[in-house]
Every structure is written in structure tokens, then in C-alpha cells.
């Protein structure tokens, strides 16, 4: 039987895939920080109030082609990890890479997010 936070993470990714960003943010604490590592234009730390800036950058840089496929979701009372493949186009060039999203969870709300790409150089190149 899946842990309740695994189910919540699956619901969050399903909402994101449908473009239901209010539902995504509704699962997050007001104090959440979204951390994207590296040196690309998308890198930085975003808050609940600036999350849409991150999404806007991703969609603008990918020409609206960004998608992600979650392969594995694991979680316990305080942490979750999601293994994903990201796909998009940069101009005429298809881009695909694997990454991990690390989540912090408190009292049923997501309180922290960190992108953990397998190859930071490839990740930065993809978004630069």
C-alpha cells in the first residue's frame, strides 16, 4: 500500500501535467522554496509567490513544449523523491534528460523542492 504522501505527490504531478497550477500550489505550504541548481537562466530559488516565474521561464525557453514523465514516486512522513524524464525542444533541437525532484513534507503540505539533475552540466546546457 502506498504511503499517503506518495499519493499526494502523484496527485501533484497529475495536476501539473494538466496545467492546474493553482492545485499544485494549493498542496504547498506558504513558506515553500523551489530550488533549481546551476547556472542556467532557470536556476534559482523560487517561492510560492514566484513559482509562476519559474514556470513561465521554462515554457518560454522550451517554446511551450516542456513535459515531464514521472517514473517512480517514493515518500514517507517527511520526504519524497520523484524520478522523472523531462522532454522539450529548444528551437529545432529535442532535449531529454533524467532528473530527480526531492520534496520536503510537513503536516501534509509540501514545504521544500530541490531539482537534482543527474548531470549538472547537461542540465545547465539544456536550459542555457
Helix content: 25-40%
The average pLDDT is 96
Derived from helix and strand composition plus strand pairing, the structural class reads alpha+beta
Query: What is the distance, rounded to the nearest whole angstrom, between the alpha carbons of the first and last residues?
Result: 41 Å
Query: CATH class, anyone?
Result: Alpha Beta
| Main sheet overview | 6 strands, mixed
- Beta-strand share of residues: 35-45%
Second rung of CATH, namely the architecture: Roll
Report the principal-axis shape: globular
- How many extended strands? 6
Radius of gyration: 14 Å
**For this entry, what is the oligomeric state of its chains?**
single chain
Please count the helical segments. Answer: 4
Order of strands, widest sheet: 2-1-6-5-4-3
Instruction: Encode the helix/strand succession as letters.
Output: HHEEHEEEEH
Provide the number of structural domains. 1
CATH topology descriptor:
Nuclear Transport Factor 2, Chain: A
Low-confidence stretches: none
What does this protein look like?
Strand 1 (28-36) and strand 2 (44-47) form a beta hairpin. This protein has a six-stranded mixed beta sheet. The chain starts with a helix and ends with a helix. The chain has 128 residues and is α+β, with helices and mostly antiparallel strands. It is 30% helix and 45% strand. The protein has one domain (4-126): Nuclear Transport Factor 2, Chain: A (Roll). The protein has four helices and six strands; from the N terminus they run H-H-E-E-H-E-E-E-E-H.
Q: In summary, what is this structure?
A:
By secondary structure, the chain is an alpha+beta fold. 30% of the residues lie in helices and 45% in strands.
Amino acid at each position: 500500500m502506498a504511503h499517503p504522501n506518495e499519493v499526494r505527490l502523484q496527485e501533484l504531478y497529475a495536476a501539473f501535467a494538466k496545467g492546474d497550477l493553482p492545485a499544485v500550489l494549493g498542496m504547498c505550504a506558504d513558506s515553500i522554496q523551489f530550488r533549481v541548481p546551476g547556472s542556467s537562466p532557470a536556476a534559482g530559488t523560487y517561492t510560492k509567490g514566484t513559482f509562476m516565474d519559474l514556470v513561465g521561464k521554462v515554457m518560454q525557453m522550451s517554446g511551450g513544449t516542456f513535459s515531464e514523465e514521472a517514473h517512480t514516486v517514493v515518500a514517507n512522513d517527511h520526504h519524497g523523491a520523484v524520478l522523472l524524464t523531462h522532454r522539450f525542444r529548444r528551437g529545432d533541437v529535442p532535449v531529454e534528460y533524467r532528473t530527480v525532484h526531492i520534496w520536503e513534507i510537513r503536516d501534509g503540505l509540501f514545504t521544500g523542492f530541490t531539482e537534482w539533475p543527474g548531470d549538472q552540466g547537461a542540465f545547465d546546457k539544456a536550459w542555457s
